[in-house]
Amino acid sequence: MVQNQEPGRTAPEPSRPDRVSVHGGHSGQFCSHAVDPLDRVVAAYVEQGFRWVGITEHMPSARDSMLNPEERAEGLSALGTQERFGAYIEACRKLQTDRRDHIELFVAFEAEAYSDYEPFLESLLAKHQPDYIVGSVHHVGDVPFDVSRECYADAIAVAGDIETLYCDYFDLQYRLIRDFEPAVVGHFDLIRIFDPEYSQRLTPESVRIWDRVERNLHAVRDLGLILDFNVRALSKGQPEPYVTAPILQRACEMGIALVPGDDSHGVVSVGANVDRGGQMLAESGFSTQWQRPA
After folding, report:
1. pTM of the model
2. Cα 112 → chain centroid
3. Which CATH architecture has domain 20-283?
C-alpha cells in the first residue's frame, strides 16, 4: 500500500551507488591506443565525483614478437614499452599522492597472459610493486584476438575452431588466476568480442566451454577475487557488458563480487556507462557496497 506523503514533499530518490572503476585509466601518454595525458584522465575522474579508481595501464611487452600493431606503428620495441611502463608507474604514484585529498587512486596494471609470460610478469611485480593487478587475456595462441575481426579469425585458425578458441582462452585465464591471483579478473568473457553467436556458446548447454567457465568462477570465488563488470563493451557496440547474463547470474549465485570498470581510454570515455553498470548490478542482486581490490 502506498502511504500518503506530506504536502509539498516528494518521495526520496534511491541512492546512487558510489562511482568507482576497478579497471580504468588508460591514457595516450602511456598507451598507444588511448588518448590524453594521464593527469587529465585523473582530473576527469575527480570532476565526475569518483570515490576511487584503479589506474590499470597495460603491462609492457616481454619481447618484440608480442608488440601490438599500434606499438609497432609507433616504432616501439619491447624495451621501449618497458621504459614507458616504468615512467607510467612513477607518474601514477605522484598523482596518487598529489590527488589524495580529492580521490583515492590505486596504482595498478593490466597483466597479460601468453606463452612463457610468467617470468616476465613476476619480474614486473617485484620491480614495481603495484597496488594490484587486473588479470586479463588478450591473446590466444599468441594472436591478439581483440584487435580486429581479422585477428579474431587468425586466432580461430590457430586454435582450429571457434569452440576450441573459447576453451583455450578460458584455460589461459585459469592459469593466470591460479598462478598470480589477480585481485581483479578483467573482462571475463572478452573472447566473445567478434562472435555474433556468443550467446549459444556461453551457456550451460555448451558443456565443453561452460565447464571451464564454472572452473574459473570457482577459482575466483575461492580466492576472493573481483570480476570486472566492464561497461566499455557498451560503448564499443556490444549488447551487454562483460560479463554476459548467464555468467552474471552464476556469479551472483556463487556470491562473487562484481565491480564496474569503465576501462577508459581517454577523457571522453571516463565514467561512460558506469552508472548504468551499477544499476544493472543492483537489479541483478549484487551488492553495491563495492569490494575494494586488495
Report:
1. 0.93
2. 11
3. Alpha-Beta Barrel (3.20)
